[in-house]
Design a protein that fits this description.
Length: about 210
């Protein structure tokens, strides 16, 4: 019989988040299905480049989730977290890969980062002014996320921030980036770039919003 694919979001056992590690889990549980990957990923965690990220995350979380200040975690915006992570890691040069339509938001982000002592490099998705026909695409204008990534590579940024790149172009950007990269804004034209709102809508009266008839 074919083994099921992992379906963690449908699991009712949730052993991974429980101190009771003797609970019986479904055969589809990735921990049970791929024990070799458990061992392999531990080895990868120990690579210096991955340890640096983990230690940065740990130091950040120790500040965000301070047991002596339980309400402190509610005061940390994503921008705060990015700034603190970069400072913990000793990063000085930060890249912003922005959609042309979110230049105002990215300008504000750049100002914030500069006021916090960072050297900022920003690149618009329309850099390169590619002729769409040269890359097999229709139209008169075409974004160049690969050039965005390569420019930031040349500029030797240490941390890149994505601001509203289109779906697909964000994938290309990530594929070609050399520096660590984190999203700040995920484009959602219907919901003011707040895509998680769609998931909240799906849980209530408007859940048929995403049913395609």
């Amino acid at each position: 019989m074919e083994r099921q694919s992992p379906q963690c979001v449908k699991c009712t056992i949730l052993r991974c988040g429980s101190p009771e590690k003797n609970r019986k889990v479904p055969a589809s549980c990735p921990t049970e299905k791929y024990p070799d990957l458990v061992r392999e990923t531990i080895d990868k965690f120990m690579l210096p480049e991955n340890q640096a990220i983990n230690q940065g995350w740990l130091a950040l979380m120790n500040k965000v989730v301070d047991p002596e200040k339980p309400r402190e975690k509610f005061s940390w915006t994503r921008v705060d977290e990015i700034i603190e992570y970069a400072k913990i890691r000793g990063m000085k040069r930060i890249g912003i890969a922005t959609c042309y339509a979110l230049m105002s938001e990215s300008r504000s982000l750049s100002d914030i980062l500069e006021r916090n002592g960072f050297d900022v490099v920003s690149v618009s998705c329309l850099c390169g002014e590619v002729n769409p026909q040269d890359v097999g695409m229709p139209g008169d204008i075409f974004c160049n996320p690969i050039m965005q990534a390569e420019v930031l590579n040349r500029e030797k940024t240490e941390l890149n921030i994505m601001v509203g790149l289109c779906l697909g172009h964000d994938i290309l950007f990530l594929r070609h980036c050399k520096a660590e990269t984190t999203p700040l804004v995920v484009k959602d034209r219907a919901l003011g770039h707040n895509p998680v709102a769609a998931l909240y809508l799906n849980q209530g009266f408007f859940r048929d919003r995403f049913t395609r008839g």
